[in-house]
Design a protein that fits this description.
about 575 residues, mainly alpha, two-stranded antiparallel ribbon, 22 helices, globular
Length: about 575
């Protein structure tokens, strides 16, 4: 039993608050900003550093416990757990980098980084599950918005890091230790389950369009100001004004509930008399069995035929015990989903897309240095902005074409992974002047994987256990980081650096590798892996095409009819 907030305004207040929490949940993207300090201050080799990058990705994406908890605990409690994980994890890293405590063992820092970035899994699960359930008929749009702001978080943190913290890694870790938990405690009251809309209204589409446009403005603004601050010597008042304007722009989604407060409608979207909001809280199951099956899709299983009604009555009277496996589009249990081929195909395709992309992200600073770019702040900002564009654009584009053409969302994963093959080949060639463009384009393709996977898994396997499915799929990120970054990229980088410096090994040293050979073999392997991922995504899209034709036959999401799977 959960407390459900009634009215049309609370879901939009929750979405506005969720934007801030989602940005805070992007704290794991800051690893490239302080990784060089871990290497120089603590004397780690590149392989040790890449294994810390693996810890960063494991913590961020291993969220099965938050997924299970999302069905048991209220959002505020999940956010609290994430806030405490952030405090303790980044607190230990700050003690090490600031030299407040000397000689902390490597294994302790590895665990601390896992705990710190695991806060991202708790925060993301809380806001994503809550808002997907609050806006069930606009799940692709909501996923794109929230994951878009999550992708933009790296650029936001980079702006804070370069302007307010003056490129200090220890100050950044202290900011993460104290600032992220404080933000969560402020916002947790507003992120709460609300009465979901039963159909998509024109005003709702306008509200989503406003948030999407506002997020694009924020993305362009942050990218521009970061480049200006990095390229010119600006005075402190100007740079501080950059941050103030950025904060104001990030508050734009809250303009929607403010408008609904100032211009209240007498007749609500459902046709009931209301003032646009209600302060009443109703304690009831969040996913009521009486909701409309035509509009809420996987919120329940139901059939319209009289024979099915008779069967349900018989079951209710205890005369008949009926059990059947759910059809795609209905609510699956985890044990029912893992025996489906589509489940594992989606996992593998997602694993290829994010696993190869995060390898570049974790080694972005070293890739830039190897190719002669010593200031990697712009590289990270470009990747972050591309990541944001991919996440937001992937949700918008897939939502449009799935409703108008019933094209499976995974079609766009196919397209982006084909592009990623050429991007990795471009990285491997190390052609002069292509590093920035390739980084931005890879960020876009990387971001699309997130905004496609999230609504796809909810459409195929339902919203009831969505938290578990989403977090299981997210395991593809740390798994890819471990295989491609920790075992492959780090090993090849250290070997090449050892050759350049005439050493037998690099353990206990912090020498750098220079030149295109540092990552060339890694990029060629990543290109081959994306080729395999492309084939798998084509198979998956072909398999689920009939499902999407059934789910979106009327131009909007609906429960599949009584057909066999």
């Amino acid at each position: 039993m959960v407390t459900v907030k009634e009215g049309t305004r609370p879901p939009w207040v929750g979405l506005g608050a969720a934007v801030w929490v989602q940005i805070a949940a992007g704290n794991a993207y800051n690893f490239p900003l302080y990784s060089h300090s871990l290497k120089s201050v603590l004397g780690f080799s590149q392989r040790q550093l890449t294994m810390l990058g693996v810890a960063n990705d494991i913590g961020e994406n291993v969220g099965l416990v938050p997924g299970i908890a999302s069905n048991k605990l209220p959002p505020w409690m999940i956010l609290s757990i994430g806030a405490f994980a952030c405090f303790f994890g980044y607190g230990v890293l700050w003690l090490a980098v600031s030299r407040t405590v000397l000689s902390l063992p490597y294994w302790l820092l590895w665990i601390a980084l896992c705990v710190a970035t695991n806060s991202s899994a708790w925060l993301t699960t809380a806001v994503l599950v809550t808002n997907m359930r609050n806006f069930p008929v606009s799940r692709g749009t909501v996923a794109g918005i929230l994951k878009g702001y999550g992708g933009l978080s790296a650029a936001v943190f980079t702006e804070v890091y370069s302007v307010l913290l003056r490129n200090s890694s220890s100050k950044l870790l202290l900011f993460l230790t104290l600032g992220v938990p404080l933000l969560c405690f402020v916002m947790m009251y507003f992120v709460r389950p609300c009465t979901p809309a039963t159909r998509e209204e024109s005003t709702e589409r306008g509200h989503f369009l406003f948030i999407q446009a506002a997020s694009v403005v924020v993305g362009l603004y942050v990218l521009t100001t970061t480049i200006l601050d990095d390229s010119f010597s600006l005075s402190a008042p100007i740079t501080y004004s950059f941050v103030i304007i950025m904060v104001v722009l990030l508050m734009a989604p809250l303009a929607i509930p403010l408008k609904m407060t100032l211009y209240r409608k007498r007749v609500g979207s459902s046709g009931n008399l209301n003032n646009g909001d209600s302060n009443a809280d109703e304690t009831e199951p969040l996913l009521k069995s009486s909701m409309s099956t035509a509009s809420l899709g996987s919120f329940r299983e139901g059939n319209d035929s009289s024979s099915d009604i008779a069967m349900l009555l018989a079951v209710g009277e205890g005369a008949v015990k009926r059990k059947r496996r759910p059809k795609r589009g209905e609510d699956f249990k985890f044990t029912e989903a893992v025996i489906k081929a589509d489940f594992w195909l989606l996992f593998l395709v997602y694993f290829v897309g994010v696993g190869t992309g995060v390898t570049v992200l974790n080694n972005l600073a070293q890739i830039g240095i190897a190719q002669g770019t010593h200031d990697t702040t712009i590289l990270l900002s470009l990747f972050s902005f591309g990541n944001f564009v991919g996440r937001l654009g992937g949700g918008v584009v897939s939502e449009h074409f799935v409703k108008t053409r019933t094209i499976p969302r995974t079609f766009w994963m196919t397209c982006t992974q084909i592009i990623m093959i050429f991007i990795y080949l471009l990285f491997a060639s190390a052609i002069s002047g292509t590093l920035y463009a390739a980084t931005a384009l890879l960020g876009i393709c990387y971001g699309v994987q997130f905004s496609i996977m999230i609504p796809t898994v909810s459409e195929l396997f339902g919203l009831r256990h969505f938290g578990i499915f989403y977090n299981f799929m997210s395991l593809g990120n740390p798994l890819g980081a471990f295989l491609f970054s920790g075992l492959l990229a780090g090993y090849l980088y250290d070997n090449e650096a050892a050759k350049q410096h005439g050493l037998n090994h690099l353990y206990g040293t912090n020498v750098s590798c220079l030149g295109p050979d540092c990552f060339r073999v890694t990029f060629l392997v990543l290109a081959g892996v994306c080729g395999v991922g492309t084939i798998l995504s084509v198979i998956l899209s072909t398999r689920i095409k009939p499902v999407y034709e059934m789910l979106y036959a009327g131009g909007s999401f609906r429960l599949p009819q009584n057909t066999n799977n």
